[in-house]
Here is the input.
Amino acid sequence: MLEQSWELNGSVAIRPEPFGALLYDFTTRRLTFLKDRRLVAVVEGLRDAPTVGDALDAAGVPDGERAGFDAALRRLADQRMITRRTA
Amino acid sequence: MTLAPERPVTTPAAPARGTRLVDHFEHGLDAPICLTWELTYACNLACVHCLSSSGRRDPRELSTQECFALIEEFEAMKVFYVNIGGGEPTVRPDFWEIVDHAVAHHVGVKFSTNGFRITPERAERIAATDYVDVQVSLDGATPEVNDRVRGAGTYDAALRALANLRDAGMRDTKLSVVCTRENIPQLDRFQEIADEYGAMLRLTRLRPAGRGADVWQELHPLPEQQRELYDWLVAHGEGVLTGDSFFHLAAYGDALPGLNLCGAGRVVCLVDPVGDVYACPFAIHDRFLAGNVCGEGFAPVWRDAPLFRELRSPQTGGACTRCSAYDACRGGCMAAKFFTGLPLDGPDPECVKGNAAGSLAAVADGTRPAPSQDHSHRGPVRNAPVPVTIARRPPASPCDESPVGPARDALTGG
Here is the structure.
């Protein structure tokens, strides 16, 4: 996943909160929480980053923590909160 | 009425950070997740357990333009959706205009209805609109059980609405049921009705708010029925919605899907037809009134109202903190305690450990809080005068029944 291009699903809105952010998918009516502000920055940065790895770099996620972020992003992908960027 | 996100919440969150999400939520959010907006107190029915004592329109009801302005503020705050209720919201002549305005401003709408006005044409339109969900209320899986609390003809009207929505191609209509002593034996039948109409079943808790306070003693589930309900909910998992209604049942063991906390003033609030903001949909009472949206708008009330600040500050669990289940149920529902006359920092009146039994018995008639407002119909209701076989709350003194009866106390008169 780290080498791929992803983005926030077009039907998902993101709202910053003190603990991180809320994500709401208007299509599935599903609500999800991000409990880490750096993860919020990663998710918001996906669209403009060539790869997921680049988005992690831009958000300042150190190598040692990449596995945890990778797992979180995969869960978001399973819920279709984020989707593969085709263009 | 919904107390928390409908879809069971997931928390992907990433790197473990030590603090549970509910701990964050207890301090409140920048905007509510679950905002209930009662558009009108007007209703064509007179359900015996109405949370908002609805019936007659309040002449101070927000105008169409005021509703539009409120929607635009919700959009700016990124309130993802509103739960519209009433009263019966569709009796407002501008109801569909308000729905359209919300959708155009990216505020999703879930509205509750008794179904009388969901014609085939309306159903078509709802099905064609993204961001709109419908909850059809039905409180009995048979006309006998349903119409006793909602009124004659209401069972047929609800099923007609469900059929119209299904035939229009609407997916995931919600069949919304308030669980009572009389309908808990019908849970499987409700599921069958939902399946038949391609709907999702939504079960919520009977709250002793509004007129519900008058019938709560007779209608709230018996202790063994609470266990039956809990087991049923566990067995059906995420296939049934609860609006986080039953977190007091978490004390039986495993938590049910949802946040499992009282969201009042933290993630939940209610805006009533005149713009008053209450801590939660089950707490329409001056004690839980935070402010009004007219003037400065909704955001300052949500963020700064002294009541909400109080609710977001650390709460004392009182006697409950000595209970092994406190971490699971957090003492239960604030509104249920308030309206049954129990202390807010003690057990829920339906505490599954039975810890409220003593204090409930000690609450004398007349010491329970009187309602702050009542919009109930004063005369017969066209659609469905409710055959009130359920006893109303007994008068606190004979004087309440008759002006010549002895007063409650000699100093104040009756």
User: Anything to note?
Assistant: Residues 154-167 of chain B form the longest helix (14 residues). Confidence is low (pLDDT under 50) at residues 1-5, 7-17, 398-414 of chain B. Chain B has 15 helices and nine strands.
